[in-house]
Amino acid sequence: MAYKLLVVDDEKDVLETLRKRLSSEGYAVVTASDGEEALVKVKQENPDIILLDLMLPKLNGLEVLKEIRGKYKDKWRPIIIISAKSELESVKDCYNLEADHYLIKPCTIENILRGIETMVSLIPVRKNE
């Protein structure tokens, strides 16, 4: 079974690059380019892991993170923040809203893959809680 990833970023080239690379690694990938679309995709697609940018149109990443954590308690859904915001406050805000990992742009695909692999390794542990 391929894990389903939701990649949320407003930069089309970033979305396409991640979609292609993550698909080639065996993941099922769906994308969203703004915060509202991200919430629709979470409901429709039920992703296993979410890669979320913070600076998004319509709803920003913090609002999306807060909504997901408040509304979807049916299963643990790892959320990896991938953002150019490197200030300690941004990182703390995300972890306070229960983000699972934070990567600062620009980051390599290898770092993103390592973060995803770490979350995948934890999914069976969290299912047993």
Q: Which key features would you list for this structure?
A:
alpha/beta; Rossmann fold; five-stranded parallel sheet
- Give me the Rg, rounded: 13 Å
Regions with little confidence, pLDDT below 50 for 5+ residues:
none
Kindly state the number of beta strands. 5
Q: Which sheet architecture does the biggest sheet show? A: 5 strands, parallel
- The rounded distance between the terminal residues' Cα atoms is 22 Å
CATH topology: Rossmann fold
Indicate the CATH architecture.
3-Layer(aba) Sandwich
Q: In one word, what is the shape?
A: globular
* Tally of structural domains: 1
Mean pLDDT: 93
Tell me the name of the CATH homologous superfamily: Response regulator
Strand fraction:
15-25%
CATH class: Alpha Beta
Which strands sit side by side, in order, in the main sheet?
A: 2-1-3-4-5
Order of helices and strands: EHEHEHEHEH
Question: Class by helix and strand content?
Answer: alpha/beta
Helical fraction: 40-55%
